[in-house]
């Protein structure tokens, strides 16, 4: 805490002492001043170890400041880096992000570092290097000991030096022996210094671009030394990736780096291998499944400028890059680019800020652009480039509704859909069934007394996972074994509703002669499992695919000729205002999996609401027309992106406290001082109780950003000061989940 930081054994400040502000992890919205001992050479963006409270913390030197005479000052214990790890535009971006997202700067700043560096790992290590004498000895063949020769050969492969940690399979005596003979030397190596990507050996030739692709590439590459945001609005299969690759190749020729943000790398193994084949070397990949050591290596390769192409998920938005030349955000509409808990940044918006500061162009790609980006394009802040047709000449799929009212359904499938699946399978195609609900059944209930398996900690039912014989809460992770009979009346329990596991069973019963693969989050629990399933699908060993949202994310299944949307009604009546946008994006994306190659595609959408105007507009006129309609509705209702929003969430173990906190905030903001600000709520969160905590939310809507941020700054003053015990609360700026 602040007090113990300022007292304790410390040195009084004197004239002439250098004092720096340091960003430290923790919940406080401020920087901390520390003295710099003589002989230390401080620089912005280098890490320091400082005394804090009773312990030590790793922080980041931010900027020099003038010492305050009255305050006694503590000194930095150690400077961990000799130079800055963060460039000036990134430091500025972190400061902007902290204030824009109303999150403590110390926490935000640490988001730019991999875990190893946050913990204070130093960036040098003991290593060995071959000497000239050693090289000559190798050439002359005059080395007797075979271990020594092996060691020298290993060193010869990396002239800059090899970390000793990578040489531990050679006995210590061997390592010391070659140094004593003058064939090698010990030295201190910078970590990551040996990375190099060899881009010379592209193994596939670029495709010749079609007219739309070529004009997009030439528009963007006409001036690459200027900030501009391009919205690449291209239908599914229109060859957006080919456009990216073509632009990347140009940037690499100019010797610069490209940052590519994608929603989830684990889900798109195809993208990374396609990049590798086209560009000659694997891009450096940054995502959360890496080990700390792997992550550090990737970070260093990107930070030093040695990695030419860096592909990452949202956290890569803060990756330092020595030599940035272009930013690409693929699937820019995807909600996973926004972090919804804690530091609630949107990776797309962060990289746009950085690109502006660094005079670098940004390409936002999507077949279903977010309303935010469409609005920015309308306002001429972004420039739109259309790819209206599929690249390989394939036609866009035909979409049709199936009215399932009164139909005899078999496991959620209408006779029309079953018949269509059969027809496509017999014709040699693949069929993809989309159902956005994993597990066997979303409920397990007693038909006699009405008991339903519910989560003890949440206002939610437990999903029955039959294969793993568990009941799971998809909100808090609670798991239980499945009761044999009703715990109340001992009757039989039966499933209600349809999940992907059950759909897989139903299809296996109907079409026993065709393999099935299921693509949902449960299928990702083991490493390599997704790749294995995708391979079976690509090879045609599985002709039926059952999938949740994951399948809609960018997979290319050339033989899928039929897509069945099993339950469109699930998305039709969402309880927040972004529901229809999200639904239209998912439907368009999943429909886009059909007919990508030679086989024409059909999409069948099952619904109980065949007259739903939105659904009909979407199917008849496409995503663009539907999105334009949604934008008009948002304007009429005074909602984002026409106005600016923030969501205040509060939760606590007993219901009144969080609600009371938000009530007080709401009344503090609804006075005459806040003209142009609307305060909605507080209301219960959509999931009113999660993991044992009662949840409420307050939505702020403002006519302009400045007003919204004034209001939020007003609330920031609450942090730490008036927080009732046990209540957690947070600010989510530009919220997507509500
Ligand atoms: P998107 O990213 O827009 O969904 P992709 O870049 O994956 O589209 O392209 C879809 C398919 O079309 C891929 O199989 C790709 O190899 C192919 N393709 C893209 N551009 C061309 C082109 N100019 N000529 C031939 N095939 C192309
Ligand atoms: Zn019962
Ligand atoms: Zn739960």
From TrEMBL:
Entries under NCBIfam families matching the protein: priA, PRK05580.1-4
Cellular component per GO, a single term: primosome complex
Residues that coordinate or bind Zn(2+) 1: 446, 449, 486, 489
Gene Ontology annotations of biological process type: DNA recombination; DNA replication initiation; DNA replication, synthesis of primer; double-strand break repair
Cofactor: Zn(2+)
Record lineage: Bacteria, Pseudomonadati, Pseudomonadota, Gammaproteobacteria, Chromatiales
Identification of the protein by name: Replication restart protein PriA
EC number: 5.6.2.4
Organism encoding this protein: Halothiobacillus diazotrophicus
